[in-house]
Amino acid sequence: MITLVTGAAGFLGSHLSARLLADGHEVVGLDNFHSGQQANIDWLSAHPRFRFVRHDVVTPYDIPCDLVCNLACPASPPHYQADPVYTSKIAFLGTLHALENAQRHKARLLQASTSEIYGDPLVHPQPESYQGNVNTLGPRACYDEGKRIGETLCADFTRLGRVDARLVRIFNTYGPRMRGDDGRVVTNFIAQALAGQALTIYGEGDQTRSFCYVDDLIEGIVRVIALPSNPGPINLGNPVEFTMLELAAEVQRLTGSQLPLVRHPLPVDDPKQRQPDITKARRLLGWEPKVPLAAGLARTIDYFRALGPR
Ligand code: NAD
Ligand code: UDP
User: Fold this and answer.
1) pTM of the model
2) Each residue of 53-68: pLDDT tens digit?
3) Which of 7, 72, 121, 127 could form a disulfide with 277 if both were Cys (CB 3.0 to 4.6 A apart)?
4) Whose atoms come closest to the Cα of 112: which ligand?
5) Where do the domains of the chain lie?
6) Partners of residue 119 on adjacent β-strands
7) Residue 267 has pLDDT above 90, yes or no
8) What is the rounded average pLDDT of the residues 251-260?
């Protein structure tokens, strides 16, 4: 089984590649290092069944494979907002090219969609049937709307019988091999705590997110790929919800950081709450997250401690 993983140098792509290698796949990792890390590829390249292709998914490609896992796309708000037009191109053209490559080689496709397609949700928690509340004009729209058109392309390729394209809607996931400077809240808090800096709270800190440890997420993805038929979109995430103040307190407790928190303005269109309804994943995959926040944070902190000051 040859599996193409786009975004293999990224956080989730490197973990998924490692898991697929462990499961016996031949993995072709594709990336252009837009938001990924060379170190993730160096580590994977030590495996005899891993091959790396440096390529920008905005340009078509032809890579023989039996399965495409399409993860290439910056996921952190500062990254995807740095060049928003490029982000829209990655989300649209990158998904189109992944689907065309899958069709050409009669491969199944797994698309990394996101909870961001729900926008600032008016339904809580969010089931797959919720159609979302996205501002098409705001600074997050390049990513949110890009991921929405990505879902549309997958749904159309599937409906037309061109590709069996499976959609996972991933909620905030964290763990080792994230970039320490990627600007997402878990890495910001850990990097700040380990550097002896105050943790930065955006807004009042009462907005919520539900954080899934990477190993749990990857197990969910692997189970979606293995299902005998296409189940439609599936939420994958940890349904235990925390405020950013609670997350900050947990990171402080685990690192021994005692500095007072510092406030920054709340970013435009920052969703106020987010929690996956994982009823469908529980029913169809027999899956639910196992790693509690404190345990996952402790492993992530150990990873960043071992990297040392950067
Ligand atoms: P990441 O930024 O760590 O990884 C993305 C990878 O894609 C990087 O290695 C980057 O270099 C690569 N990439 C970006 N643009 C590219 C291009 N034009 N051509 C080739 N490669 C390109 O992000 P991540 O957290 O690993 O996210 C992976 C996928 O999962 C993304 O599609 C993201 O939207 C989705 N997702 C992640 C989360 C999360 O919490 N981590 C949540 C929802 C969805
Ligand atoms: N956030 C924060 N401090 C930070 C970085 C982020 O309080 O240093 C907040 C941010 O405003 C958001 C939440 O943490 O409400 C999650 O942000 P992240 O960028 O990790 O993910 P997303 O907003 O895409 O869910």
Assistant:
1) 0.98
2) 999 999 999 999 999 9
3) 127
4) 1
5) 2-173+211-236, 178-209+240-274+291-307
6) 133
7) yes
8) 94
Catalytic residue among 118, 143, 174, 213: 143
201 lines ligand 2 (CB under 6 A): yes
* Strand pairing report for 200-202 and 262-264: parallel
Q: Percent of the chain beyond pLDDT 90? A: 98
Locate 161 and state its tokens: 């019988």
Average pLDDT over residues 190-208: 97
Any atom of ligand 2 within 6 Å of the Cβ of 138: no
- At 120, the amino acid letter reads D
What phi and psi values does residue 30 have, to the nearest 5 degrees? -120, 135
**In which band, very low, low, confident or very high, does the pLDDT at 310 lie, cut at 50, 70 and 90?**
low
Instruction: Give which of 36, 77, 33, 78 is closest to 56, Cα–Cα.
Output: 33
Q: pLDDT tens-digit profile of 117-162?
A: 999 999 999 999 999 999 999 999 999 999 999 999 999 999 999 9
Which residues make Cβ contacts (< 8 Å) with residue 260, sequence separation at least 6? 198
Residue 309, pLDDT above cutoff 80: no
Q: Hey, what CATH topology would domain 178-209+240-274+291-307 get?
A: UDP-galactose 4-epimerase; domain 1 (3.90.25)
Q: Among this protein's residues, is 174 annotated catalytic?
A: no
> Could you tell me if the CB of 175 is within 6 A of ligand 1?
no
Please tell me the class of the 2-173+211-236 domain: alpha beta
Q: Is the CB of 247 under 6 A from ligand 2?
A: no
- Tell me how far apart the alpha carbons of residues 147 and 134 are, in angstroms, rounded to a whole number: 11
Cα–ligand 1 centroid distance for 73 (angstroms): 4
Q: CA-to-CA distance for 202 and 266, rounded, in angstroms?
A: 5
Atom number in ligand 2 closest to CA 116: 24
